[in-house]
Amino acid sequence: MNWLRRWNARSLASQFFIAGGLISIATMFLVGLLVTHLIEDAVIHNSGAATALYVDSVVAPLLPDMQTESLLDEGSTQALDETLSQGALGRRLVSFKLWRSDGTILYSNEKALVGKKFPVTDKLERAFAGSLVARYEIASDPESIEEHALGKPLMEIYNPVLQPWSGQAVAVLEFYESAEGLGDSLAHARLRSWGAVAALTAVFFLVLSALVFRGSHTIEAQRKDLRERVNQLSTLLAENRGLQRRLQRASQRAAALNETYLRGIGADLHDGPAQHIAYASLRLDSDLLINATTQPEAREKELAWIRSSLAEAMTEIRNICSGLVLPQIEKSSITEIVTRVVEAHQHKTETRVETIVDEDGPELAPAVKICIYRFVQEALNNAHRHGGGIQQTVKAVSHNGHVRVEVSDRGDGFDPSEVRPSSLGLVGLRERIDSLGGSFDIKTGGGGTTVVMTFEPMEVGDER
């Protein structure tokens, strides 16, 4: 089946050119044979009919009444001998015979054949049926020994002799004509016929080939385009699968981080406000407040401790809530968002933050704005806790949908490998940025720490 695979590997145009070429050649050969045969038959028949008409016009008046079945009388024989041996007719005819329906030769210029009876051939039967029979070939009949000895094709004609009043064929004239030039005419006719058939077949095949090659070129172009599209779709599908797996992992990590974050909030509430409230609750049951003999100054001092504990609990609760609740930033610009976070951080930590913002891009999606807010907030908190808040800087750039936010400090830095997977800070930032399709990078060392988040234009489209 190797040939079948090689054949199928060819283009449609190549397959058509090979198969169509072979079929066209075979068709041209068959049509050429048919047309040539028809033309030869027409030429031979017309030539024979013209000769038969000429001979019949000369010979028929010399024949006696053909109702009798006897041989020709001496007068008719002599008249035919003189007519057939002289003039143009004598030069054209090679031999002449007059047949009776039973195969007997009534007259012949070869006297030895007169009176002999031969088998009735198909040509003779058709002539007695009233048809003119013409052949151009080398004589091969039993009575045509001398004609066969010439060794060249002759025009053989069988012409029926009809009764004027009944139209019945009572005898048949058979004669051989040298037909000089007929062979050349037939050869020229064959050549012209084959040339015409070959030219028409070539034109037809070339026109079809042009159409097929054009269609094949279109099909190949469409197939190439389809193959490219399939490759693109396959690439997109592979990317989509990767994004799905990435999203699934991000969702799983986000769920785990949420649980950790909630436990962190619970721990902050338990270790902070809950302790102060519990301390205040215990002091409410102290003897200084219950005993009626307690001095007013001591009771007031005890109440002041309780008020102080409750105030500290309320302050810590407000601080926790302020870290959880976002301000209204959906309609804010990047400049307003960064400024709001920086001012809150400076007020809280009493440190200074250098701020550089450059924006001229389109409106960002709310999810991206929230991510920027949390990123700057968490990065500044880490810079203050771990880097001492030394030379804190925030740089934010937004151009044509490309967003880059960078937070840096000049502290001592840290080892990123020591960050626990359960840590809420850097891990939470990375998961939040990854979930939106952005990128997160961190550089740290003895000269300080820099964290960078980046979003490309396709990643920050309007989420409407």
From TrEMBL:
<keyword id="KW-0812">Transmembrane</keyword>
<keyword id="KW-1133">Transmembrane helix</keyword>
<dbReference type="GO" id="GO:0016020">
    <property type="term" value="C:membrane"/>
</dbReference>
<dbReference type="InterPro" id="IPR011712">
    <property type="entry name" value="Sig_transdc_His_kin_sub3_dim/P"/>
</dbReference>
<dbReference type="InterPro" id="IPR050482">
    <property type="entry name" value="Sensor_HK_TwoCompSys"/>
</dbReference>
<dbReference type="Pfam" id="PF02518">
    <property type="entry name" value="HATPase_c"/>
</dbReference>
<dbReference type="InterPro" id="IPR036890">
    <property type="entry name" value="HATPase_C_sf"/>
</dbReference>
<keyword id="KW-0418">Kinase</keyword>
<dbReference type="Pfam" id="PF07730">
    <property type="entry name" value="HisKA_3"/>
</dbReference>
<keyword id="KW-0902">Two-component regulatory system</keyword>
<dbReference type="GO" id="GO:0000155">
    <property type="term" value="F:phosphorelay sensor kinase activity"/>
</dbReference>
<dbReference type="GO" id="GO:0005524">
    <property type="term" value="F:ATP binding"/>
</dbReference>
<keyword id="KW-0472">Membrane</keyword>
<feature type="transmembrane region" description="Helical">
    <location>
        <begin position="194"/>
        <end position="213"/>
    </location>
</feature>
<keyword id="KW-0067">ATP-binding</keyword>
<keyword id="KW-0547">Nucleotide-binding</keyword>
<keyword id="KW-0808">Transferase</keyword>
<keyword id="KW-0597">Phosphoprotein</keyword>
<feature type="coiled-coil region">
    <location>
        <begin position="233"/>
        <end position="260"/>
    </location>
</feature>
<protein>
    <recommendedName>
        <fullName>histidine kinase</fullName>
        <ecNumber>2.7.13.3</ecNumber>
    </recommendedName>
</protein>
<keyword id="KW-0175">Coiled coil</keyword>
<feature type="domain" description="Histidine kinase/HSP90-like ATPase">
    <location>
        <begin position="367"/>
        <end position="459"/>
    </location>
</feature>
<dbReference type="GO" id="GO:0046983">
    <property type="term" value="F:protein dimerization activity"/>
</dbReference>
<feature type="transmembrane region" description="Helical">
    <location>
        <begin position="12"/>
        <end position="35"/>
    </location>
</feature>
<dbReference type="InterPro" id="IPR003594">
    <property type="entry name" value="HATPase_dom"/>
</dbReference>
